[in-house]
Amino acid sequence: MSEELRISKDSPVGFFDSGIGGKCIEAAFRRLCPNERTIYIADSANCPYGNKPAGEIIRLSEAHTKSLLAQGCKMIVVACNTATAAAIDYLRRKYPEVPFVGIEPAVKPAALNSKSGIVGVLATQGTFNGRLYNETRAKFAKDVTILATVADEFVTIVEQGRVDSPETEGIVRRKIEPLLSAGADRIVLGCTHFPHLKSVIEKVCAGRAEVVEPSEAVARQAKRVLAERGLLA
Ligand code: DGL
Asked: Which terminus of the chain is less hemmed in, N or C, by CB atoms within 10 Å?
């Protein structure tokens, strides 16, 4: 960034996602840090990011970053697994003075806690292609069978506000049942749109698998980063 950052403890925290998915991260952060102000960009016009080329996601992510910085944000939370996978390395290089917090599928806790040794991961193709997911998987889940499943339909359901519609449970069940039948005892929600479907997903998984999602962990990380920099409101 060329212009000087004029930020203080009272500056807002910026969030962006391809749509309303990342609102679950923003909500977790606000519960944890009720004194903080937040600005959220939902890029629903360009949703989904899941199958876009990395270069396009970088371009969109940089535009959101510029817009949030122009609004005086003191930190940016990339509240999208796909955008984190494609763009966070670029953003950190390009804006070294800005703290960025990203999100990746919670493969590590799921793999460490799985008893069956089989973990289902729901995410976008872009997330599965990314360095972060593949490094974490190689490091922490090499003795576990990962059933990687693209669930773009879930993104559409959430963006269209169809979470409570009658056909949603059937769509969720058709996606997750094969993972449960294959023995998965952990289902990782590796896309920020999916926690919006958590109650349906938990109903489908009931008694067979635990649902793992990292909103609270990302919120805690965001708080830590602010505290380290003396920027907590
Ligand atoms: N919310 C985004 C994520 O966490 C994905 C949704 C999309 O495909 O745009 O990956």
From this structure: N
